[in-house]
Each structure stands twice: as structure tokens, then as C-alpha cells.
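Input (Polyprenol monophosphomannose synthase):
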Amino acid sequence: MTGSEQVVGPQGAGGLVVIPTFNERDNLPRIVERLLTALSDIHVLVVDDSSPDGTGEVAEEMAAADAAGRIHVMHRTVKDGLGKAYLAGFAWGLERDYPVIIEMDADGSHAPEQLHRLLAKINDGADLVIGSRYVPGGELVNWPKRREVLSKGANTYARLALGSSIKDITAGFRAYRAPVLRAIGLDEVDSAGYCFQIDLAWRTLQHGFTVREVPITFTEREIGESKMDGGVIMESFLSVARWGWQGRTARFRS
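Output:
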């Protein structure tokens, strides 16, 4: 635990929201507008993976129109997974000494109006705060039953395999204190898909940092298509099994 001093202001000052995008030109302006309305001092970094639909250009227009300089854009020339996009955004934020770095999707599934819940826990002393669908008060809206069953199953599997108590370890709405990201070995992370979320939460726990969950409402996207596929699921399954085995082996040897 890094301490309980206030690191983010009441309107989000000191926080950087990293939003990876690929073909999100219709969703991005909406989510950023909602975010800056909810927290007027927060900063945003859009990490665009050369979207064919022009999302990167839309992001540049938004940045140019924001006189307060709160919107920033990173253009990547390769599309090599959500995890790699987040790692690039984290590195950008750490280089600029943002004390808190936040993950959030561009598709509207994470409500910017609820980000203050995560930041309040950060200010209370948590090192990583996860916006959880599966703690009391968490909700799912318009999510297909198949996806819900898959998500809950994945979280149960991860808890059992890793011996973790986190209810929603796959969640992608989360806030990190910068010292956590500096300590957990981001240069060693090779998770490219959604198991990136499990990977970083597990590393955070392994390094002795404090993880908290707060309830959020997760809403299925209205525009565009999910990036989830079978390869992502298999990567997560195999990686979690390996981490769980390594953790149990280490405990046995000690």
C-alpha cells in the first residue's frame, strides 16, 4: 500500500484516462464528452491502432478543439492487442508523471459518471481499484446471456486457479497509482488480449499492493462490435493455468 494521501482532485486533476481505440469513431466523441462533463480536470489519452474508420483523425480534431489541453492522442502503426495498447498508454502517462492512470473502454460499457467511485478509493489509500460487475451493487445492462455466463465462468476459474479473492479480475475499468505500474514489471508483460487484465491484477497482488473493488454498471455497447474472440479466450485460459501453477510451486518451495 502506497499511502492514503489524496492524489486525485475532486474533478479528476492528476488522473489520466487511457482509452484504446480501433474503429470507434462514433463512440469516442460521446464517451470523452461524458468523461469531461463528469470530471472536468481529468486528462484523456486516446491510443488509436491505425483505425481504418478514421478514429485517430476524430481524436486529433477533439484534441485540437479542447482549449484546456486535456485530450491527447497516440497513433500506433500496429494492431497487436488491447494489452499492448494499454502498455503504450501507461508508458506515456508515467513519462509525464501522472499520479493515477485509469483504464476505460471507448464503447460506452464503462460509465464515466461512476469513475469518481474508483478515484475515491484511490484517495482512501488503495493501490489498484477495479470497477466490478460482480460485487454487491454491480450491474449488467443489455449484456447477452452467453457473454455473462462466459465472464462469470472466467472470473470463477481465475479465482480458483490463482487463489485470488477478486470478484471481477477480468474487468477493464480500473485505476492504478503510478508506483504500482512502475513496480510490477510492465516490460515483462506479454499478454495481448483480455487476459492482460488478469495479468496486471495478479502482478499487483504478488507485489503486495492493495486491491479494492467498487460496484459499477456495465452496459453493452450500442454501436460497433465486440473485439472478443476464441483466441483471446484460449490465451486467458492457458495463461491463468500457468500463473496458478507457478504460484503454487513457489509457495510449496518456500
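The longest helix spans residues 230-253.
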